[in-house]
Design goal:
single chain; 44 residues; mainly alpha; 3 helices; 64% helix
């Protein structure tokens, strides 16, 4: 899987039921939303 693939591709790859479930799980583990994580750690 390429780094810039969409959330739907990632959701299917990890076997999550939906994108919103994946987003919720991500926030539970990292403490921030996927968007906030991308914005914080995006390389320029």
């Amino acid at each position: 899987m390429r780094l810039r693939e969409g959330a739907g591709t990632l959701t299917r790859a990890v076997g999550c039921g939906s994108e919103s479930a994946l987003s919720t799980a991500f926030k539970r583990v990292t403490g921030v939303s996927p968007r906030a994580y991308r914005n914080r750690y995006r390389k320029f």
